[in-house]
Amino acid sequence: MNGLSLMDGVLRAFDFVRTELCYVPATDEAAYLRHLLTHVVAPTGTLLVCNYAESLPDVANRIIPGAHPTTDLASRLTALNFTATFRDAVDPIKHRRIRIAILHH
Fold first, then answer.
1. Nearest 5°: phi and psi at 103?
2. Which long-range contacts (CB under 8 A, 24 or more apart) does 36-43 make?
3. What is the pTM of this model?
4. What are the structural domains of the chain?
5. With the C-alpha atoms ordered 45, 79, 61, 55, is the resulting torsion angle positive or negative?
């Protein structure tokens, strides 16, 4: 489901919404996150922004053209003026660091 095309009244708001920024053009990231918080996440819900490329080199070759090669999700969200808490993990199969940002209204 494309979160950018969801608007008020189209569907119910969700308690939990998960997304990644690697699919969003860098110039649209802040507007995309605001859109999800306004139109898709329930008023008491949570937006989960995942990054599976945390601290990886050469990320630019693995994302869509025009997206920001985010390797530090905390810094990227700060640059976009969002405040979040974070949870970190390691993918046991691919041995990569995963970071999840937790945003609320």
1. -115, 140
2. 36/3, 37/103, 37/105, 39/6, 39/7, 39/8, 39/13, 40/3, 40/6, 40/11, 40/13, 40/14, 41/13, 41/14, 41/17, 41/105, 42/12, 42/13, 42/14, 42/15, 43/13, 43/105
3. 0.86
4. 12-103 (3.40.50.150)
5. negative
Q: What is the mean pLDDT of the chain?
A: 87
Q: 101, 84 in Cβ contact below 8 A?
A: yes
Three-class DSSP category at 3: helix
Has residue 62 got a pLDDT over 90? no
Identify which has the larger pLDDT, 13 or 59. 13
3-state secondary structure 25-78: EHHHHHHHHHHHHHHHEEEEEEEEEEEEEECCCCHHHHCCCCECCCCCHHHHHH
